[in-house]
Amino acid sequence: MPSLGVYLVPVLAAFGLAAVLTRLLSVRLRILDVPNERSSHAVATPRGGGLAIVAAFAGGIVFAWAGGFDAVFHSGEFLGFCAAALIIAAVSLYDDLHALPVKIRFLAQFAAAVLAMCSGIVVEHMHLPLLGGFDLGVMAYPLTLLWMIGLVNAYNFIDGLDGFAAATAVVAAAFLAFIAGSAGNGLVLWMAMLLSAASGGFLVFNWQPARIFMGDVGSTFIGLSFAAMAVIAAKDGVGHIDIFVVPLLLFHFIFDAVFTFLRRLIAGENVFVAHRTHLYQLLNRMGWSHRRVATAYAAAAVLQGIAAIWMVESLGEERLIVFLPFVIAYALVARQVVRRAVARKLL
User: pTM of this prediction?
Assistant: First the structure.
């Protein structure tokens, strides 16, 4: 059994590398996010800092490989994830530089998801209340595609305040690492640990007042990483983890994205046009600071992490009951936020 130091070195290396690269990018990067009527910041700030997260994650893998954990990364699923992540990161970085059309971004996401599925990252089995466990059959591929593209975009949409997306990535990935480690899933353990560490190193310079934003290159990479880890962890075999663990860890983000999408759709708004009416954005516009919103959502992520640990230790029907209190709580919060936003003519 390797010593604790062997595990810590790659994690600390990812954290340190992310912090150093983020600092360098914040000084040298000339991709500026200039404030406009839809912005939540007032000063032109470099974006594209998520490149440091991607590089630090890759650097952590190299350190883990050198430390004797190379066998963990030999699976076809991991290679497929790396190829998909390369596509997502490269296209998203170009988008940060040149603002690509929505169709091009979507096609890149589609190609990345298909490539990942070809490597075996496919949700093949699911367990639902009343229905029990069942194989998805031919539906496995469209459902996996929807999950991966959906989470990539949800995480991208939710990256709108200082420290917001990075803080949740740190918390959710740390809990996923603990769950994967307890289940004996070495690949997801390493991926989650390094994602948490890399996001933490970036967060040092992204916390309010942010010196740099992660941009699409960071948010889409994090979204893809969580989507892939959820499926890899749920595959049958050693270290099997319920597919719903990651959706629970990120439930506050998923709820915000889905609720806002449906509210705008019902209101007859063009859902493809940029806006400032996500729940977290409304809280900020009503007087909550970036720091307060980010802290509140990170605290919610902690509660979801605790609930996720309870979920994996539960059996059968009880597993999805854990979502119920969060659904009720977030629905009540959303109702109150929308009512106050309407009263202040923010909607």
Answer: 0.93
